[in-house]
Design a protein that fits this description.
alpha+beta; D-amino Acid Aminotransferase, Chain A, domain 1; D-amino Acid Aminotransferase, Chain A, domain 2; 9-stranded mixed β-sheet; 6-stranded antiparallel β-sheet; 8 helices; 15 strands; 28% strand; binds 4'-deoxy-4'-aminopyridoxal-5'-phosphate
Length: 284
């Protein structure tokens, strides 16, 4: 692969970052993952806007504007002949002597980006559906900032796999916040879609927003509120959303089948609508 590091496109074997990088020492960095379908970016504007929000919340400075960022994404897609998959972009506060206090503001950020191939549209998981387990949400209190501090989500995913499941839904004060790397949704017996309201407790998913707009445009009811694991187990359908999974059905929660224990009709319809809308709105 050809990857991007601080202004240069290099073979991955030649890419390097300082051992003093604050991303490495303090997880002092943020990232975005943008899906690529048919060689084009899906909702780059949304991901760029969230990147700036994360940077602002952490007082991090990036000298690249959105056009420059978009160009990096497109060049990586071209240089790697990527048809379907993702572009990962990471920005850290740069390299400086190890100190908890931030270095001087003019310390250049470290910017790294690379592509990864992934079958998104024809994903087997979309057909099979996912088994999830519930775990306590033990992450920090600013989950709305997309930081590279991903150890707990990683542990949650491993715990799910250890128990024969695919992923974990995280629970705080009795209510589901989100999945380890996705937003969590249920469909109740009136066909109302329910997903937790935005706050500092969860990531403001770009896919969540688009799915919500599509649902409303198709006269589906959407309620933004928290729900319990029990309510989810008793729901008609459950699903999750993220940039590279799009819409994935959830077929069991803590070993209890949701609905028929099969991917639900509304979930399938939303996935289809999402794919159609993404291909139509495709970045030129
Ligand atoms: N929540 C978390 C914790 C995530 O890591 C992700 C994926 N990055 C999401 C939600 C979904 O966000 P998006 O739709 O923007 O990919």
């Amino acid at each position: 692969r050809t990857v991007y590091v601080n202004g240069r496109y290099v073979p991955e074997s030649e890419a390097s970052v300082s051992v003093f990088d604050r991303g490495f020492l303090f997880a002092d960095g943020i990232y975005e993952v943008t899906a690529v379908l048919k060689g084009r970016l899906v909702d780059f504007e949304g991901h760029a806007a969230r990147l700036h929000r994360s940077l602002n919340e952490l007082n991090m400075h990036l000298s690249l504007n959105d056009n420059a960022l978009r160009d990096i994404h497109r060049q990586l897609i071209d240089k790697n002949a990527l048809q379907e998959g993702l572009v990962y972009l990471q920005v850290t506060r740069g390299a400086a002597d190890r100190d908890f206090a931030y270095p001087e503001a003019q310390t250049p950020a470290t910017v790294v980006a690379f592509t990864q191939q992934k079958a998104i549209i024809d994903s087997p998981l979309a057909e099979r559906g996912l088994k999830v387990i519930s775990l306590p949400d033990m992450r920090w209190g600013r989950r709305d900032i997309k930081t590279v501090q991903l150890l707990y989500p990683s542990m949650a995913k491993m715990e799910a796999k250890k128990r024969g499941a695919d992923d974990a839904w995280l629970v705080e004060s009795g209510l589901v916040t989100e999945g380890s790397s996705s937003n969590a949704w249920i469909v109740d017996h009136d066909n109302t879609l329910i997903t937790r309201e935005l706050s500092r407790s969860l990531l403001h998913g770009i896919t969540r927003r688009t799915v919500m707009q599509l649902a409303k445009a198709h006269d589906m009811k959407v309620e933004e509120r928290g729900f319990t694991i029990k309510e989810a187990q008793n729901a008609r359908e459950a699903f999750m959303t993220s940039a590279t999974s799009l819409v994935y059905p959830v077929v069991s929660i803590d070993q209890r089948p949701v609905g028929e224990g099969q991917p639900g009709e509304i979930t399938r319809a939303l996935r289809r609508l999402y794919i159609e809308a993404s291909l139509e709105a495709m970045d030129a």
